[in-house]
Amino acid sequence: MSWNHNQVLLDKVKDKEIRKWYAKETIENGWSVSILTHQIASKLYERQALLENKTTNFDETLPTPTNEQAKELLKNPYIFDFITANKDLKELDIERELTTNITKLLLELGNGFAFVGRQYHLEIENEDYYIDLLFYNLKVRSYVVIELKTTEFKPEYAGKLNFYLSAVDKYIKDENDNPTFGILLCKDKKKVTAELALKDINKPIGVSEYKILSEIPEFLENTLPSIEDIEKRLEESE
Is the CB of residue 117 less than 8 Å from the CB of residue 134? Predict the structure, then answer.
């Protein structure tokens, strides 16, 4: 569809600053009207643009401007609305669903992410280690390690991810790459606990929550118009 259709959709966003943000992202990412519809209905602005919603140590562990770029990439929460099973999925089940729907996962992760591998194997001193999900981000020129937990945040999770980031920097990262950073996805990030856990960690880590389809309606309640509402208004305007 043409830009005119996107403009009709953007005009439904009442707040001027939010509307400008979606317009900028649409141009930079080449979003179609269907993708823009999805991003507005899933509250992308609130999840990605509002830095106060994010828990990271990027300012202390990444150089400028990489720290700001990494924070801009992070979302809270991540929306995996293509995972339709119940809330009791195991971590490996969710990983499998994410990689089976890799195109939708890359759309949710955002601009510049390239998939490297799932359960990515590292052998260190005759011990086997497996990274849940490994990506490379072309925008910030960094490897990105994503660790997935089906529980609330625990401080020991940050220590393990810190180890994986050191390993990727030592064994995988090229000298021209920026430092590897990690995203720890939990059912509940426990903001204060996470901030304390990251305080003295020397590798860049962001902690976010994620939601699957069965949990999304409650999160989206009383927010921007639903996808159905937006599409209906678009049809009325044609």
Answer: yes
Q: Does domain 55-222 have CATH number 3.30.450.20?
A: no
- DSSP H helices, the chain, are 3-10, 16-29, 33-41, 44, 58-61, 66-73, 91-100, 102-109, 155-171, 191-198, 216-220, 227-237
* Residues 52-75: tens digit of each pLDDT: 889 999 999 999 999 999 999 999
On whether the CB atoms of residues 224 and 40 are closer than 8 A, the answer is yes
Please report, for the chain, the start and end positions of each structural domain, with discontinuous segments joined by +: 1-43+230-238, 55-222
pLDDT digits (tens, 9 = 90+) for 6-49: 887 888 888 999 999 999 999 988 898 889 988 998 899 999 99
